[in-house]
Amino acid sequence: MLGSAVLALVVSTIGSGALGGTPIDEAADGTLSATATLVAPAGPAFSIWGVIYAGLVAYGVWQLVAARPADPRQRAVGWLLAASMLLNAAWIVVVQAGSVTFSVLVIVALVAVLGVVLARLARSAPSGWAEALLVDGVAGLYLGWVLIATVANVSAWLSGLGVGGLGLGESAWAVVVLVVAAAVGAWLSLASGRVAPALSLGWGLAWVAVGRSSGEDTSGVVVVVAALAAVVVLAAGVTAGVRARRTAPARPARVV
After folding, report:
1. Measured between alpha carbons, how far is 216 from 179 in angstroms, rounded to an integer?
2. What does 163-200 look like in DSSP terms, one character per residue?
3. Which pLDDT score is estimated for 106?
């Protein structure tokens, strides 16, 4: 687990251009840059990866020194989280190779894996605050952010194929996918009783609004819809947290 986290962190560092590699927003001819489509979050939004990677590494360390190898909850999700990190690294490698099509396949697989992780975690409460934060919390943040990243990735891929709006027009398409993303994110939080997915998805949606508020790709409609979508998702997350606390007052760690 820790090895997968470190590998993902190293590959991400290379992909960011910090060690001389090509930054993701410049790879694949800039198809995945922060201004490539109307649903791409503004650049500062991607700083959330620092929090997610730090959480994944911390989880890997915690699993080695504190987690019980035979714990059913850890056995149910540990290998899936390790697989998600390998998929994360694979996505960066694929984008660096210039294949946006394969990047869509990889990120969809990543969403599916993290969705299964959240579903399995929702079946039972964590044993304490450390597990709630490092497992439930990190996995939730990871999934919420990857959801908005998938929206941007798929939209960029379609735009590269010349069918960015699927006949709807770019602005209308942006509205549709943002509404769908908000609906999925709200449902995830309410169904799982977790706040974390809403926090990262809401963060991403808010930065979509910021990104469309200025520059050549300004869109007032997208700004309003993205901002409202962020509010809806965050409200769903708060509601999920409140409900979880009321139904399980003796185990507050469940709501992270």
Report:
1. 23
2. -TTTTS-HHHHHHHHHHHHHHHHHHHHHHHT-SHHHHH
3. 97
